[in-house]
Write a structure and sequence with these properties.
The complex is a heterodimer of chains A (429) and B (191). Chain A is α/β, with parallel strands linked by helices and 429 residues long. Chain A is built from 21 helices and 14 strands. Chain B starts with a strand and ends with a helix. The chains are: A alpha/beta (429), B alpha/beta (191).
Chain lengths: 429, 191
Amino acid sequence: MDKSKQEIIIASSHEPEQNSRREFMKQTGAILGAAGIMAMVPMGTRAAAWAAGSDAPELKVVNVGFIPLTDCASVVIASVMKFDEKYGIKINLSKEASWAAVRDKLVNGELHAAHVLYGLIYGVQLGIGGQKKDMSVLMTLSNNGQGITLSNQLKDKGVTTGEALKKLVDSEKRDYTFAQTFPTGTHAMWLYYWLASHGINPLSDVKTITVPPPQMVANMRVGNMDGFCVGEPWNNRAIYDKIGFSAATSQDIWKDHPEKVLGSTAEFTQKYPNTARALMMAVLEASKYIDDMANRRKVAEIIADKSYVNCPVEVIDQRLEGKYEDGLGKKWNDPNYMKFCNDGAVNFPYLSDGMWFLTQHKRWGLLKEDPDYLGVAKKINQIELYKQAASQVKVSIPKDVMRTSKLIDGTVWDGKDPKKYAASFKIKA
Amino acid sequence: MKRILIIDDVRDRAAWLKASLELAEFDVVGVLSWEQVDERAIQAASADVIIVDANAPGRDTLEQISLMSSTLEKPVVVLGAQTDTRSIQESMRAGVSAYVAHTIQGEDMSGIIHVAAARFAEHKRLRDELKEAKSQLVERKLVDRAKGMLMDDHGYSEAEAYKRMRNMAMAKGKRIAEIAEAIIFAKELSA
């Protein structure tokens, strides 16, 4: 029995509610199916496909985890549209129930790679809230497309902006509860940054809790929270269900911010560099495909399925196509909609992007000491591997490993002095 | 003695796990459903070990509570539903089940982990068996009904009716229950 098959069988043993035998048959079928498909490709084509990837992938089946969110599109499309086969691999998608499960399965090798929160990978590298493990960011998967939703109860109090929220929190004392999706993750950082930019300390002025993305809307409906930060389609879903409204999009907080990454352990990239490259090329091709606006409706239809995001197509499609409404009567076409490629501007694993999460982990007390910001980012972000993959699929590579961004509070982040930047915030832990 | 808290929405599994752990003389201080999980409930239980299903969505909620709380010792979370001992050991080595409290060493956990893992696996096996038994029962009922229809409509003996269905199933590459279903549907259509 080859290794990949073994790993899949072990993975299937973790599903308590499923018939394991049926699952086993299905997954074995998928593997045999993949082998069958490759066998049908004429030798010449196959050799050409591998030549394009410079070296044959060490693994034929790559287990890739994802969480039901609109930005899981690139890994799903890479598999569904068979971009993976072009590079001699078969992506075996695995829908996960929590970010904790994604982390654990990456760490123990059940998943080779995953659609994962940028900050989570950095948190594991530094051992925040768990065991330390050397990790890799292969590429960034998406920019923009998250948001902050406030409840209709707040709207009834006249709160439709961050400024008004600050006034209410100051004048009417009670417990205010805000939810994000993972303690070290991106949504925690967007939520904290946004609240702080309006003078609200997310750790002392309000209560923050963690709720799995698909459960956000249900929790707000029963009055468990005043607001949340989550990825689409769940902000749009809250509007669709008439329980909340959009106070801010994540692109309001940071235009073209890094969001999900294709993450793995360092062990995976060291042991299987050709597989990692093939995976990156397949996902880059999918990213290009999704960024063609003519394809977005079709992408929404594919990912809306029960096996992926499990949400009505319309709810996903609107914001995926940049058509926003805020639930307060305002409609607009957002030029900074969720992007997946943008000719590589999205995907390049900028060191400044990775370091930013470390500065925020330090700001909010998740890191007690300043880490070696640049050293950690250089270790995690696989720039060389990315460049090889991107050049093969003709995606542009930026000249600088840093980029400069201006955030909602007017501060500029360029990656040059992370320690000073981390210490510069008035509102902090 | 380690104080154990179980969080599980599958009630019979939780009850069973609790009984098993207590039989092995572990101290189970509480059983919660995921809906009940918040910082206060976790604090109140003051558990050393929390046992949850590895695939529960609520695990991220627990992450935040154990990470952000200044007073709560980081609980050890034992991941359930792992049927394979080797995979448990590998996970343990990789530090997966260890949001480890400083006071608890990995080896102290082994007894609890073994009981929990074995019970999770046993529960899953029984559920699978039950599901299979149920589906077999449904299939047998379908076959009996279709058989009765053939006997009534064509005057076949029971053995002949069954043989005809079986032959068709083999010829079409379908299960006999599917053939039975088709016969029933056809009958309903013409009724």
